[in-house]
Design a protein that fits this description.
Blueprint: H1 17-23, H2 26-29, H3 33-49, H4 55-73, H5 85-97, H6 110-146, E1 151-156, E2 159-165, H7 166-190, E3 193-194, H8 210-216, E4 221-222, H9 226-231, H10 234-260, H11 288-312, H12 325-348, H13 368-378, H14 382-399, H15 408-414, H16 422-425, H17 428-434, H18 443-468, H19 474-477
Parallel strand pairs: 3-4
Antiparallel strand pairs: 1-2
The structure holds arginine.
């Protein structure tokens, strides 16, 4: 049986062993030990400032908390005997500091305490996620720069569509992930509030100096409504949404690369160090890492659904169902960061020069739209031009020819607008060069985009460095209490 229940007064009968095991959360929230100790230290400083505890008691509490931290970090704490991390800290403190420990929970509840722990952890998780995304974006930019003028097919409906620069293709993923980073920055601001002072649900019965606590714990604002504070987990949903968006982007990127790496496409080579063989088929080189990221994206997206459903039927304020949120949060956080980091490593070693790469734009009539555009520039309407080229392509398919193989006399049978400059117009390089809109694939547009994206990445780095200063550091906070 677990030791000291901090709520033992009211409940007379010893806990049912199975119920006790079932209701505990220490197996998960033990990961929040540093956050819980930091929150408790700040709270104790706050209690001293309003005269609930004396300076001597505060110092005993702080020293006790330091010892608990060292004990946990040395691997000497027995988590198994406690219900949750809050009970562990309070009970261990009682063992070390004695009576003052009994005052540390004055005007606080585990309901506002757990949200405080979670928010401190979440702010760090957001920073870590942003750092991974930043490194990922950096790699995408490097890869795009390396493959600036390499051309390969863009597909729509999984059919060859138009030639595109590999760099342009890669930068499409820059956009997706930069959006996730922007959302995470908003998420950080939204979750940057102090929950303490909310108590169990209606506020604290003591004049808790929430301004001081916010300052100590580096929250930029204080929570506004106690019932909302203890009863909402919007911040977890927002974060898991960002994780899901990152995983969705990774999943699609993986799917592309898995396809492009197949024998059939042979557009890229995935480095062998990120592949595995088959136990039976000697020839296999399977892109497992990418397949697993694609698989894990399902789990993280599942987590988003789980957190919604967890909260969907809950009445106001705190309910124990919410205890389950940490499994979902921590799992999403770890899986997403791990996936981002390994994907970046795979990408770094991808060679965009597969066997079929040089000839990849020669077949599939990817110049058809350019051919229609050619006629439009000569005076034809687009709809007619589309129809004319469509009929010419049907002819080419029948005769097993490419557009460029048709002599001018043949082309003129379809339209008087054809002239000898047509052949140059439908070359792959011309097709690329024609896409000069700012969002298009011409080399000049992509170059501009690359330099713009580099600046955006640098600015993101500065923003992340700024956030780092907004995480409470226990050692700093308690340095004057010796
Ligand atoms: N273990 C709980 C959680 O993780 C915190 C304590 C909530 N309060 C309570 N009375 N059970 O959400």
């Amino acid at each position: 049986m677990k030791k000291d229940k901090i709520w033992k007064g009211r409940i007379k009968s010893p806990p049912d062993i199975i119920a006790e095991k079932f209701t505990q959360s220490i197996t998960i929230d033990r990961q929040l030990y540093r956050e819980d100790i930091t929150g408790t230290a700040a709270y104790a400083i706050g209690l001293e400032s309003i005269g609930i505890i004396s300076k001597t008691e505060l110092i005993e509490i702080i020293n006790g908390l330091k010892k608990i931290l060292s004990k946990i970090e040395a691997g000497d704490a027995d988590f198994s005997v406690y219900e949750d991390i809050h009970s562990l800290v309070e009970c261990e403190l009682l063992k070390i500091a004695g009576e003052p420990a009994r005052k540390v929970h004055t005007g606080r509840s585990r309901n506002d305490q757990i949200v405080t722990d979670e928010l401190i952890m979440l702010k760090q998780a957001i920073i870590e996620m942003l750092q991974s995304i930043h490194a990922f974006l950096d790699e995408v930019l490097t890869k795009a720069q390396e493959n600036l003028t390499t051309v390969f097919p863009a597909y729509t409906h999984m059919q060859k569509a138009q030639p595109v620069l590999v760099s342009h293709y890669l930068l499409s993923y820059f956009e997706k992930f930069f959006r996730v980073a922007s959302k995470l920055l908003i998420c950080f601001e939204d979750c940057d509030f102090l929950p303490l002072g909310a108590g169990a649900c209606t506020g604290s019965g003591y004049p808790v100096d929430t301004g001081l606590l916010a300052k100590l714990l580096k929250f930029s604002k204080t929570g506004k409504n106690s019932m909302d504070i203890v009863g909402s987990r919007d911040f977890i949903i927002d974060f898991i949404y960002c994780c899901s968006m990152a995983m969705l982007g990774l999943s699609r990127f993986c799917e592309d690369l898995i396809l492009y790496n197949t024998f059939e496409f042979s557009l890229i080579n995935i480095d062998e160090s990120f592949c595995t063989g088959s136990s039976i088929m000697p020839q296999k080189k399977n892109p497992d890492v990418l397949e697993l990221i694609r698989g894990k994206s399902a789990l993280v997206t599942g987590n988003l659904i789980q957190i919604f459903i967890l909260l969907k039927g809950l009445p106001s304020a705190y309910n124990s169902d919410m205890q389950e949120d940490k499994k979902i949060f921590l799992n999403s956080y770890r899986e997403t960061i791990e996936s981002l980091n390994i994907f970046k490593a795979v990408l770094k070693k991808i060679d965009f020069n597969g066997k079929n790469m040089p000839g990849s734009c020669k077949t599939g009539f990817m110049e058809a739209t350019d051919a229609a555009d050619y006629l439009v520039k000569k005076g034809e309407s687009f709809r007619n031009a589309h129809n004319i080229i469509g009929r010419i392509i049907r002819y080419c398919i029948d005769k097993n020819l490419q557009l460029k193989d048709l002599p001018l006399e043949k082309l003129i049978e379809y339209s008087q607008y054809f002239e000898s400059d047509f052949y140059n117009y439908i070359r792959t390089e011309s097709s690329i060069a024609a896409k000069e809109t700012a969002c298009g694939t011409s080399v000049s547009s992509v170059k501009k985009m690359l330099s713009y994206d580099k600046k955006k990445t640098d600015r993101l780095k500065t923003a992340i460095d700024g956030l780092n200063k907004r995480i409470p550091v226990l050692e700093e906070m308690i340095s004057e209490y010796k």
